[in-house]
Specification:
The protein has about 230 residues and is of the alpha+beta class. It folds into 2 domains: about 140 residues, Double Stranded RNA Binding Domain; about 30 residues, no CATH class. It is built from 6 helices and 10 strands, in the order βββββαββββαβαααα. It has a 4-stranded antiparallel beta sheet with strand order 3-4-5-6. A 4-stranded mixed beta sheet has the order 7-8-10-9. Strands 1-2 form a two-stranded antiparallel ribbon. Part of the 30S ribosomal subunit. Contacts proteins S4 and S8. Belongs to the universal ribosomal protein uS5 family. InterPro entries: Ribosomal_Su5_D2-typ_SF (IPR020568), Ribosomal_uS5 (IPR000851), Ribosomal_uS5_bac-type (IPR005712), Ribosomal_uS5_C (IPR005324), Ribosomal_uS5_N (IPR013810), Ribosomal_uS5_N_CS (IPR018192), Ribsml_uS5_D2-typ_fold_subgr (IPR014721). This is Small ribosomal subunit protein uS5.
């Protein structure tokens, strides 16, 4: 006689409660609340996305600062992250985040950078329209437009800004502090003062070609350059 069968009163075998099937307890892997996922699904898609249109963004981690606080029983560490975010098409922003862990600090800084993105007009989609200067604290930066093929002549935090912004040709100079926070803020102050010929012409009630003519260009060259201006 098999171990899973028991004789009843009439002599016929009857099956016990152990049928060999999967158990449905709360602690099993297939259970409702006892599984690892807890009924909430897997957390595989944790990549940050743009809240506006879901487009891909360029994220640059500029600086991470670690601070420690001495408490009873040891030291407590904290991290501060500085992140620059851009779409590579003329929009960029920076953010700062603090947390006890590095990934959480980076995610906070990225979220803050997405909310503070600004639009910077670009000439031919590769360089700035005109020169500019920015000042914040002890940081002084100068940004200049450059011809095609120049590349990004910038270092440190400023390079991350122009790479995320989508600028291909620019010449920069930083004088004063090398603090990345002040350099980033001074750079964005210089970028915030950028204006395009189209916006100036619209504000003054003139044509773009009229503004270009005042620079000494001929009528035909001014018309051709004005037609090439996109923003």
């Amino acid at each position: 006689m098999m171990a899973d069968e028991v004789q009843n009163a009439e002599g016929a075998p009857e099956a016990t409660e152990n049928t060999g099937g999967p158990r449905r307890g709360r602690g099993g892997r297939d259970g409702g609340r006892g599984g690892r996922d807890g009924g909430r699904g897997r957390r595989d898609d944790r990549r940050p996305r743009d809240e506006d249109g879901g487009e891909e963004l360029i994220e640059k981690l500029v600086h991470i600062n670690r601070v420690s606080k001495t408490v009873k029983g040891g030291k407590r560490f904290g991290f501060a992250a500085l992140v620059v975010v851009g779409d590579g098409k003329g929009r960029a922003g920076f953010g700062h985040g603090k947390a006890r862990e590095v990934p959480e600090a980076i995610s906070k800084a990225t979220a803050a950078a997405k909310k503070a993105m600004i639009r910077v007009p670009l000439r031919d989609g590769r360089t700035l329209h005109h020169d500019g200067r920015g000042h914040f604290g002890a940081g002084n930066v100068t940004v200049r437009s450059a011809p095609a093929g120049t590349g990004i002549i910038a270092g440190g935090p400023m390079r991350a800004v122009f790479e995320s912004l989508g600028v291909a040709d620019v010449v920069t100079k930083s004088v004063g502090t090398s603090n990345p926070y002040n350099m980033i803020r001074a750079t964005f102050e210089a970028l915030g003062e950028q204006t395009s010929p189209k916006s100036v012409a619209q504000r003054r009630g003139k044509k773009v070609s009229d503004l270009i003519k005042r620079g000494g260009a001929s009528d035909r060259a001014a018309e051709a350059e004005a037609a090439a201006v996109t923003e």
